Amino acid sequence: MDIDKILDKIYPIRTLSKLKLIECFKEVRHPKNHVIIHSDKVEKDVYFIKKGIARTFSDFLDGEVTIAFGEEGDTIISLKSYILNQSGYENIELLEDCELYKISVAKLQDLFSTDIHIANWGRKFAEQELIKAEQRFISNQLGTATERYLELLKKHPTLLQRVSLGLIASYLGITQVSLSRIRANIK
Amino acid sequence: MDIDKILDKIYPIRTLSKLKLIECFKEVRHPKNHVIIHSDKVEKDVYFIKKGIARTFSDFLDGEVTIAFGEEGDTIISLKSYILNQSGYENIELLEDCELYKISVAKLQDLFSTDIHIANWGRKFAEQELIKAEQRFISNQLGTATERYLELLKKHPTLLQRVSLGLIASYLGITQVSLSRIRANIK
DNA sequence: AGAAAAATTTAACAAATGATAAAAAACGAT
DNA sequence: ATCGTTTTTTATCATTTGTTAAATTTTTCT
Q1: Name one GO molecular function term (chains A, B) (predicted).
Q2: pTM of the complete model beyond 0.90
Q3: Would you say B148 and B137 are in contact if contact means Cβ atoms under 8 Å apart?
Q4: Using the beta-carbon criterion (under 8 Å), do A130 and B133 form an inter-chain contact?
Q5: Within 7 Å: CB of B181 and strand D?
Q6: Exposed / middle / buried, residue B159 (Cβ in 10 Å: 0-12, 13-18, 19+)
Q7: Amino acid A142: pLDDT
Q8: Nearest to residue A49, comparing CAs of A79, A22, A29, A78?
């Protein structure tokens, strides 16, 4: 998905401002398994996925929590770096070879403070992410793990072909073994 | 908490724009148990809590999911109405008699499109909510219900005095009876 | 193709949570 | 203050999920 379409999907910007914004992106590639965002660093850049898939996760004493999966058009971003200029709680790793669009947080903030159309695009960007985050919370609060698994499959039908079972389990808040058992019971 | 402080806590706005924004708020009161946001309606207004406490929840076939509690300074908002102009999934009820600041979504959007400082305030508002939503997701994914309960208490020490056990349980994703049992085991 | 590594399944038992019901305690309206 | 309502606790049993370990399947690398 090219950058023009990605930006428009979030919120259409008038042409002049959009060109100003697009011109600040740089295309980069990274291989599968590359960890592109680190929880212990203040990350200087934000990425949009042109091609590939990524996983956001937090590390804890007793393992990992997968927070989200990102596919084409989605963002690779350390929220705490982007919003608070602090090191965060998220790591992000690429689950496939990826083509990404990259822009610096500083450049974005500069544009936000000088161009009202870009500022409103940035507002819409945060708002869309907010809706997604709230829906993730509700879904994972609801029903049994079986129901949550089925709903995830319905919402992201291709995910299972692209992502290992253990990662999906950690997204659902259960163990990999439990998810395997659940799948056995569905068939 | 008065509106000036509430706005500044989200993001300091330059004085002239802040006055423009504050002037659009109206103070209203509603009694305990009033349902101020309905999931089946496109809500026209957004509220900030001057005094009191509120609960955001979704209704489902097999009961309710509490999404968040809001205290002084927090927002009472239908995200889907605010962001997408659609009816949503959230209901919000007041758990105490409340004093609120109210502004229309339309007026806010008008200000966003004409005043870059207010647009950036709106961006920061969404961003702060996004951080909170992500942290809620992570917390509720992590550890046992006991740990999540203790963490909630640590983060919102007064909540237990203000909110019934059943509501806290539905926030933690467990039943009220389970939470009662958990509390018995802690002591 | 074949060996090594990684991912998934299966199984058995333990621990946590759900469901239901009844008792006790706290709260509210008159 | 007291009666009626709501909330919380306690108890029992069923279900779900966790833990561990081993077997099986799939993937990766040469």
Answers
A1: kinase activity
A2: yes
A3: no
A4: yes
A5: yes
A6: middle
A7: 80
A8: A29
